[in-house]
Amino acid sequence: MKPRYELPGIPDGTTFSCFIRRQEAFDFSWHYHREYELTLITEGTGTRYVGTTVERYHPGDLVLLGPDLPHTFTSELYDGMAEAAVAQFRHDFLGPHFFNLPQFRTLSDLLARSARGLRFGHVPAEVHALLTRLPRLETAAQTVALLDGLRRIAFNATATPITNPGYAPAPSTAVRDRIDAVCRHLQQTHTEPVHLTEVAALVHMPPTSFSRFFRRAMGRTLTDYVNQLRVETACTLLTSTALPVTEIAARSGYQNLSNFNRRFRELKGLRPTQYRAAHLPTDVS
């Protein structure tokens, strides 16, 4: 139930890894690692889980995730492939003091901000091209290109944190294990009724103590987190099916339509019908 610790392989002749991840679908694989991870989605849509936050992703989305930040990407089913350009590197991949040098202060600040994860609202074409060709370069050119890519996104004004201010990778293994057990369970069951006593029992805690623990660790209540999962499920159904809103509400875990509409608008700033109109392809009716 806890996130899998991942140890990315490092090719011979270099000190970091970059590759194109291409497969029929990205499955839910909740994990973390000591490396920073720069991920550019090039094909497919789906849901991105980072720390406390659940969001949809689309081609062109770029994120930078700091070390030990639990995350996963899960694909929506469609006729094409799921694909992403990925670079993974440790803070000392160019030496223990490289990012402490004064000329790299901007990059050091970028890496520090990535502790909560960073999403980039706009990815310039040159950054997109740089990251997708990175795995094809020889190793010295890869290193220079990666630094150039980091330099370019360090000045990107559209960068925003992904997780809540109250969230940071848990220093306590026991805390992280409990939170990740709950998150994995909710990812699988959030469209069903969620009962505090049952969720607390997963980590062997009394309900009242668990509520305080969850809010302190996640920066939000259990109810808020479940609503976020359910609304993201509804977004997927709104844009990938022609189901009526009442059916989508039920499939997302809401038995009360007015409650669904209220929660959806709180999180998305739109009514479900407005969201569908803004995001549904013109050939879907």
Automatic annotation (TrEMBL):
Top-level lineage group: Bacteria
CDD domains xrefs: cupin_MtlR-like_N
Domain spans labelled HTH araC/xylS-type: 180-278
SUPFAM superfamilies associated with the record: Homeodomain-like, Regulatory protein AraC
Signal peptide (UniProt feature, chain positions): none
InterPro entries, per the entry: AraC-bd (IPR003313), Homeodomain-like_sf (IPR009057), HTH-like (IPR037923), HTH_AraC (IPR018060), RmlC-like_jellyroll (IPR014710), Tscrpt_reg_AraC-type_HTH (IPR020449)
GO MF, one example: DNA-binding transcription factor activity
Xref: PROSITE patterns: HTH_ARAC_FAMILY_2 (PS01124)
SMART domains, sorted: HTH_ARAC
Alphabetic keyword roster: DNA-binding, Transcription, Transcription regulation
Protein name per the record: AraC family transcriptional regulator
Organism this protein belongs to: Actinacidiphila oryziradicis
Organism placement in taxonomy: Bacteria, Bacillati, Actinomycetota, Actinomycetes, Kitasatosporales
